[in-house]
């Protein structure tokens, strides 16, 4: 009997997350057990789609800022399947403004950076050899928005998670003192949170060579998050293309890299880019 592919998608209830789930369900070859994770843990409505009988979609409750919730989902999947093959960290948060409160800044970092890292760390022990982790990032995390001094620190090939966290804490202190932009940080906390996520991807890939771990920019997509910056040129289905490729497509076992199209408006399936 064929062993099904076990996949988890966070932020699965809407937008790009829902589109990723739909694409996985329709395009995965063979049997699939898909855990559609969201804070509410509600069932995913894909009734308008033709889902193969070899695909089982299971709703899952997950709050990526709650360690107990993260641990419970990892334990559930280990108990039900004895492992996981694909983890797509799609859940994210965006305040499209410079002047945010300290609580909003903390929330941005806790969701996009620390929460996603915590999910990765909870799932690493149950990921099967050759399994894939996909972290949905953003073009906003590109280092061109940072001072060269900070770029060098982010790109240090020996950077570890402790050093990365110290770097992000430096950002928080400077933001609290209203000196962040003068110190070379971009004006929006979202940018720093996604650069941190890109660094997490590189570090975890280096530390886990038995897995394929990448991050990507899905493009500028028509979701409530994306629409804060204007009228997005891409649909959620277009936005799902790069994450889907990194999850189940042919990528020659490339790991630890940032994938994107040349333009946030392009509907392609992405390629390795410098960030």
UniProtKB/TrEMBL annotation:
Q: Which keywords does this chain's UniProt record carry? A: NADP, Oxidoreductase
* Molecular functions (GO terms): oxidoreductase activity
Claim: NADP is one of the keywords in the record: yes
Q: Name one Pfam family in it.
A: adh_short
Top-level lineage group:
Eukaryota
Gene3D superfamilies per record: NAD(P)-binding Rossmann-like Domain
Oxidoreductase keyword on record: yes
Family listed: Belongs to the short-chain dehydrogenases/reductases (SDR) family.
PANTHER family xrefs: CARBONYL REDUCTASE 1-RELATED, CHAIN DEHYDROGENASE FAMILY PROTEIN, PUTATIVE (AFU_ORTHOLOGUE AFUA_3G15350)-RELATED
Q: What protein am I looking at? A: NAD(P)-binding protein
Q: Which organism is it from?
A: Penicillium vulpinum
């Amino acid at each position: 009997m064929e062993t099904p592919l076990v996949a988890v998608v966070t932020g699965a209830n809407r937008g790009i997350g829902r589109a990723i789930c739909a694409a996985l369900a329709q395009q995965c070859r063979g049997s699939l057990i898909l855990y559609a994770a969201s804070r509410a843990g509600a069932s995913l409505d894909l009734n308008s789609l033709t889902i193969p009988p070899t695909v089982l979609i299971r709703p899952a409750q997950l709050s990526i800022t709650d360690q107990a919730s993260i641990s419970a989902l990892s334990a559930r999947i280990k108990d039900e399947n004895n492992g996981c093959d694909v983890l797509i960290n799609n859940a994210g948060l965006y305040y499209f403004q410079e002047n945010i409160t300290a609580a909003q800044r903390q929330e941005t970092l806790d969701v996009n950076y620390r929460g996603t890292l915590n999910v990765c760390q909870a799932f690493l022990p149950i990921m099967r050899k050759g399994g894939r982790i996909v972290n949905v990032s953003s073009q906003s995390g590109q280092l061109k928005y940072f001072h060269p001094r900070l770029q060098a620190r982010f790109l240090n090939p020996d950077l570890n998670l402790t050093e990365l966290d110290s770097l992000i804490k430096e950002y928080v202190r400077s933001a609290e003192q209203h000196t962040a932009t003068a110190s070379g940080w971009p004006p929006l906390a979202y940018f720093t949170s996604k650069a941190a996520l890109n660094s997490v991807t590189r570090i975890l890939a280096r530390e886990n060579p038995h897995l394929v771990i990448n991050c990507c920019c899905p493009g500028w997509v028509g979701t409530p998050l994306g629409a804060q910056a204007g009228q997005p040129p891409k649909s959620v289905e277009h936005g799902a293309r790069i994450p889907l490729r990194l999850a189940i497509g042919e990528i020659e076992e490339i790991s630890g890299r940032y994938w994107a199209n040349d333009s946030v408006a392009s509907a392609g399936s992405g390629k390795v880019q410098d960030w």
